[in-house]
Amino acid sequence: MHQPADEKSINLALQGGGSHGAFTWGVLDALLEDGRLKFESISATSAGSMNAMMVAWGLAEGGAKGRDKAREMLEKFWREVSSEGLYYSPVKHSPLDLLEKYNPFFKQYNFDETASYAAFEAMTSIASPYQFNPMNFNPLRTILERLITFNNINDGKTTKLYITATCVKTGMPRVFSNDEITIDVLMASAALPTMFQAVEIGNSFYWDGGYMGNPSLYPFFYESASRDILIVHVNPVIRRELPDKPHTIDNRVNEITFNASLIKELRALSFAKKLVRNGWLKDEHKDKVRDILVHAIRADDVMQDLTAASKFDTDWDFLCGLRNFGRAEAKKWLEVSYPSVNYNDTVDIDREYLDIRPGQDHQPPKKTEAG
Description:
single chain, alpha/beta, 14 helices, 12% strand, globular, disordered C terminus
């Protein structure tokens, strides 16, 4: 592990995506193990919120001990998810499925063909969670109650958190910060409306934050001293093949929907960066707009062969496989991009998000010299 003298401050933006959040677990585990990045703030949604909470709770202990605790909490959380999933996950596997899953690229691991998931899809298409789950049971709440308390989070004694949920009435994002975060806030951030009842907080009801902020970037612009943002993607931005089956079409629509809010924020950020770099701001406004530096760890290649149904799979080996992919991607990113942190972007927003040409694949950033 590197010495604290190497430490650079950065903000994390963590997407949601159900069990695919285990990829983010791996990314965070590798970054914490490396030890050279200090997480000033984390903005997160849904599964990203759970990862963010585990990290912040562990880091409250401070220093190397805090990083070790954060890694421990992440593993505990995902182990609990896997254990509860034995009873509650809609994805159940036959012995043949369990053999096929060991394909290293998941190419034959077709979750959409499991009978249990087909039954789950049929049920949620004709009944709402108010009907099939009138007692509003959510095993995720039980897991969080077992693992964490909110004292250090609410007192602001750890990493700054920004958790996004979507207000059902207004359709607008609501970003909750440390002193507002409760288990209800975390539940709201992950409340897919076809699966869970809307969560009441104050006088409003909330659904999954991914619809309007997956995750929200704007809190960093106003609340964080660090101008670096590392986005950890779970939903592929690019897919190479045209979806032509009901479940692949549904999956791609889901990905586009849950990337839309992030793309819009990146478009606005790109314009703000041009204002700064091209000298378009009047002198009296120059100190009001910062040149935000953007970095990203993408999951596109990893998730190409996984479908929407796999977001509900909690098999431990599957989760660990995604974790391992996440660790590998984070280590590659550190090798290539760490020198640029606090100095340069390692993402070209226009080319990689806003002006992607047909047939153009995402290419990882080339190593650049700091300064």
